[in-house]
């Protein structure tokens, strides 16, 4: 019984300290896409993969035309010819989907390469911001599954301003 009372008293002593602890939240994804360096990185990725996107659109159109052509000629084709055409279309479609998937993986890898240094700098700026604002903890909105945060506890905009200021100073 004495142990339970002791634990209860320790918990009560800790409550006021916890109640005074200031916490904040930042949305890292929003920050990366909002900071000047993040916008430049996304623009660079778009430019690098724009030609590939046009190539995929042309291939997709070709496949759709092939499908329409097969459907049009289906009446005149024998069952074996229909199966052969359908199989050919299916193989081309699978190859196209694999190519698109590989391209998406390449884009994701390139995005990680370009945003990794930005993320590292953002993390440094979060520490500086936390000290300036007297925050004991700063949570990442997306990773903590935080559904709602009062605007006064969301420091994303302050983080973006701080990052952009330091980014301009370094240039």
The assigned CATH architecture is 2-Layer Sandwich
Report the structural category. Answer: mainly alpha
Shape: elongated
Classified by CATH, the class is Alpha Beta
The chain-level mean pLDDT equals 85
Total of DSSP H or I helical runs spanning 4+ residues? 5
Count of individual beta strands: 2
Q: Strand arrangement, largest sheet?
A: 1-2
What is the N-to-C order of secondary-structure elements (H for helix, E for strand)? Answer: HEHHHEH
Helical content class:
over 70%
Strand content: under 5%
User: What is the H level of CATH, i.e. the homologous superfamily?
Assistant: Skp domain
Biggest beta sheet attributes: 2 strands, parallel
How many domains? 1
User: What is the CATH fold-level name?
Assistant: Protein Binding, DinI Protein, Chain A
What topology emerges from the helices and strands here?
Layout: H1 2-20, E1 23-26, H2 28-34, H3 36-73, H4 79-133, E2 137-140, H5 156-170
Helix pairs in contact: 2-3, 2-5, 3-4, 4-5
Report on this model:
With 171 residues, this protein is mostly helical. It has one domain: Protein Binding, DinI Protein, Chain A. Helix content is 78%, strand content 5%. The chain contains 5 helices and 2 strands. A two-stranded parallel sheet has the order 1-2. The model has no long low-confidence stretch (mean pLDDT 85).
Key traits:
Protein Binding, DinI Protein, Chain A, 5 helices, mainly alpha
In short:
The protein has 171 residues and is mainly alpha-helical. It has helices at 2-20, 28-34, 36-73, 79-133, 156-170; strands at residues 23-26, 137-140.
């Amino acid at each position: 019984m004495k142990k339970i009372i002791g634990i209860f008293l320790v918990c009560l002593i800790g409550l006021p300290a916890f109640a005074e602890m200031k916490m904040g939240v930042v949305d890292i994804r929003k920050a990366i896409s909002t900071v000047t360096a993040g916008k430049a990185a996304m623009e660079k990725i778009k430019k690098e993969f724009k030609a590939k996107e046009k190539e995929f659109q042309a291939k997709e159109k070709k496949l759709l035309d092939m499908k329409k052509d097969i459907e049009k000629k289906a009446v005149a084709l024998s069952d074996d010819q229909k199966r052969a055409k359908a199989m050919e279309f299916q193989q081309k479609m699978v190859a196209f989907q694999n190519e698109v998937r590989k391209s998406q993986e390449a884009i994701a890898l390139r995005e990680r390469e370009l945003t990794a240094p930005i993320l590292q700098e953002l993390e440094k700026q979060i520490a500086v911001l936390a000290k300036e604002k007297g925050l004991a903890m700063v949570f990442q909105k997306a990773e903590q599954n935080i559904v709602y945060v009062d605007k006064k506890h969301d420091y994303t905009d302050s983080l973006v301003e701080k990052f952009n200021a330091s980014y301009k100073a370094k240039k």
